[in-house]
Amino acid sequence: MVIAVTRPVSPSFGECELTHLAREPIDIARACEQHAAYEDLLRLLGATIVRAPAAPAFPDAVFIEDTAIVLDEAAVITRPGASSRRGETAAVAALIADYRRVLPVEAPATLDGGDVLLLGRTLYVGRSGRTNDAGIAQLASLVAPFDYRVVPVEFHGCLHLKSAVTAVDDGVLLMNPAWVLASAFPRCDTLSVDPREPYAANTLRLGGVVVYPSQHPFTRDLLVQHGLCLATTDCSELAKAEGAVTCCSLIFEHGFENARGILDRASEA
Ligand code: CIR
What is the pLDDT of residues 78-89, one digit of tens each? Predict the structure, then answer.
């Protein structure tokens, strides 16, 4: 079973953190509709949606990707780089503990899930305004026992590494070459976003399909020409907060052997 953990759009979403974009009014009702359509699409592609509790006091809570890195063996609970987001992690850790052993990142380290790109057994980690060297080092030591390698990646011009590059197929990356160098990923083929769409590199693979924001039509056509199967979703309101498709979910496989908390509760009932 594939689980996608999501978190509702907060009523305070308009007060989100912004780093590279100017603040624009956000239509919260429309953002909620787009988020619901995103959840429907993940369901259609085979995921079971598990909603984390709403967190109205945290404007950016919908971007749940930044709070955890869920691997098959364990989940690393991050310490987000923006102090306004640190209170998002406790409820996520409690929920994920039903599925995985949780490993917290501790101060002074900071780490945002949006900076972590998992390719095979390698975690490429963007060194960013949100993820510091201590965060990269802690992640490396937390995942070393499970045989993951951590490779720091330099990038600039956008918030997170996964704003600049994501995988669209096995061994194939979509990237904005103005923000990150293809040479950082020596074993991969790369496709570049259409230069008119700098924010078009964030994609989410699920069930053999690439979930893709509908607001990047030129890059979408390029991906289709490349033979990829796309399912588009409108996340234009979420994009005003510097979010896209990876950041609104935590997706992982769930086998019953991992369901300690759920099975315990079921047996108590
Ligand atoms: C922030 O600045 O933290 C949010 N406004 C956007 C976070 C987007 N997260 C992501 O792409 N992983």
Answer: 999 999 999 999
